[in-house]
Design a protein that fits this description.
Nuclear Transport Factor 2, Chain: A, globular, 6-stranded mixed β-sheet, single chain, alpha+beta
């Protein structure tokens, strides 16, 4: 078994056991599968946690207590060799939803006793059959919306329980030829480099730039508060154009991990971007204060270009850096 396939098995075994592990013994499982000094990066308010006990106490036990019969429903699963300096090695990525019965409060969000779905994206760094680093992002605003709260003003994109790949082949359990993963990684890296100059005042129409990286029928599955959009023209109109117009002083901070396997790939940063919403963003007023965006992206390539993109942005962290505590505002019932 290759190192990559072994890492996949480690993560899949962990996922299977985690689904069936009761809340009061989660820590025991994490101690077994995680490195004693694991560095766990999570969506606000979880942020950075160190060691299996902290991960259990701060995240997994409260989530399992809140969501009865919790199950992981994966849409994407793959692994790859990360070549970014300081974080090299085999990482395993997955994306999908956690589904459960919302029976007890979570983050002080009142329970509904109905099905709720928590959209997630996760990267795990495997060393010697142990998880030594994790990045785990969620769409907590979408979770809030399912509980009857509206954390943000209405936006241009559609807000949905998001499906997996149109091709239904995102679960890459088997070993695939390296060449296909290389094509996907190259397509992702071309898009990143090609978009770096968007604040440089180019006269090129945005749709022409996008067409170099994306297929015409692309779908951008954005986080709640921004929304999803379909086709290059609508993506330019409903997200990419307003996003570019809303920010100045954009700084790309790099990525921690960037991997691909087969037609699927992704990356995350901590943070990816630092920028200033001088023109306003997500219906909020403009600001002269810079803030960080922690982002996880997943991609599907079709042919030579990208065609689907699932995006996780830690919007709670971004807005807290702007002085807006979304969770606190919800708790005060401002947007009920």
């Amino acid at each position: 078994m290759s190192q990559k396939q072994r890492a996949k098995k480690t993560v899949l075994d962990y996922y299977q056991r985690l689904d069936s592990t009761p809340e009061n013994t989660v820590e025991d499982l994490l101690v077994e599968v995680m490195h004693p000094e694991i560095f766990w990066r999570g969506y606000h308010p979880f942020n950075e946690q160190f060691g299996p006990k902290a991960v259990s106490d701060q995240f997994w036990r409260p989530l399992k207590k809140a969501l009865s019969n919790l199950q992981r429903r994966m849409d994407i699963f793959f692994a790859g060799e990360n070549n970014i300096e300081g974080y090299k090695g085999i990482w395993v990525a997955s994306m999908g939803h956690f589904l459960g019965l919302f029976d007890s409060p979570w983050l002080e969000i009142p329970p509904t006793r109905k099905i709720v779905m928590l959209r997630y994206g996760e990267f795990n760094h495997i060393v010697d059959d142990k998880i030594i680093e994790t990045a785990m992002f969620f769409d907590i605003p979408h979770f809030m919306m399912q509980a009857g709260f509206n954390p943000f003003p209405p936006q241009t994109g559609a807000h949905l329980v998001q499906p997996g790949p149109m091709t239904h082949n995102g679960l890459v359990y088997q070993s695939l030829p390296d060449e296909e993963g290389t094509k996907t990684l190259n397509a992702i890296e071309f898009m990143i480099e090609d978009s770096k100059n968007w604040s440089g005042g180019s006269d090129e129409p945005l749709v022409d730039e996008l067409r170099r990286s994306w297929n015409e029928d692309m779908i951008w599955w954005g986080p709640s508060g921004i929304g999803a959009t379909y086709t290059i023209e609508r993506y330019a109109e409903q997200h990419s154009g307003p996003f570019r117009a809303g920010f100045t002083d954009r700084k790309f901070n790099g990525h921690v991990c960037r991997i691909a396997e087969g037609a699927f790939g992704g990356f995350f940063g901590w943070p990816n971007l630092t920028l200033t919403p001088t023109g306003g963003f997500m219906g909020m007023p403009g600001s002269s204060k810079a803030a960080d965006m922690r982002v996880i992206d997943f991609y599907r390539r079709e042919g030579e270009k990208l065609t689907e993109n699932w995006v996780f942005i830690d919007l709670l962290h971004f807005w807290k850096m702007q002085g807006v505590d979304i969770l606190k505002r919800m708790q005060e019932n401002s947007f009920r």
